[in-house]
Amino acid sequence: MPNRVVTATAATAVLLAMTGATADASVLPVPYHGSAGQVITVIADSPTATTAVLTAWQRTGPLWDQWQVVHGPITANVGSDGIGQASETTAKTPAGVWTLTEAFGIQANDGTRLPYRQVGTSDWWVSDAKSPLYNTYYHCDPGTCPFNEAAGEDLGKAGPVYNHAVVIDYNRQPVVPGAGSAFFLHVSAGKPTAGCVSIPADDLKAVMAWLDPAQHPVIDIAVH
């Protein structure tokens, strides 16, 4: 990404929240005409880019273009195959607008108001496209699960990247077998992902603390 992208700190969100300051930009970088009061935009320069610009926006008025930046812009890692049509056989981050309705993490909840699940090595996200549980959370001890565990993600074994994460509701209602599974906004490992969006831990903490289920938050992933 261009060098003009500067990593923000958690203090950015705190300062804006305390002062009510409005950032320079008041119009989202991509069209959005939904009713969400909170939008996270993730914008890449090209379909094959493996980094993008993530910005968190709060609606400030009834008009479509009344928005305030509350965090960012920061550099985010996206899929190693870029952004576009996701599937189980690619490492693309899904383009589109997706709701953010729940969160999880290996560590305890440190402030998000989203429904939160602390996970261990018996907590899975099912990526077995032949299973009726495909692209859902499931709890089972390793070796006893009713799906192909080799095609599932043991959330508790993922390491620090899943210390905290927000579920991106791509391919969940309805679930289409093979269209892709287990897409999250999670802690960055400093490299492209298998299709998730990742940002530094301090930035994720600030974003997760800001997310409010009453505002029906969404993530808008696009190529500009």
TrEMBL record:
Pathway: Cell wall biogenesis; peptidoglycan biosynthesis. InterPro entries: LD_TPept_cat_dom (IPR005490). The keyword Cell wall biogenesis/degradation applies. This is L,D-peptidoglycan transpeptidase YkuD (ErfK/YbiS/YcfS/YnhG family). The keyword Cell wall biogenesis/degradation applies. PANTHER family: BLR0621 PROTEIN. The active site is at 186 (proton donor/acceptor), 196 (nucleophile). Residues 1-23 form the signal peptide. GO terms for molecular function: transferase activity. Residues 50-221 form the L,D-TPase catalytic domain. It comes from the Bacteria. Pfam families: YkuD. GO terms for biological process: cell wall organization; peptidoglycan biosynthetic process; regulation of cell shape. Keywords: Cell shape, Cell wall biogenesis/degradation, Peptidoglycan synthesis, Signal. Coiled coil: none annotated.
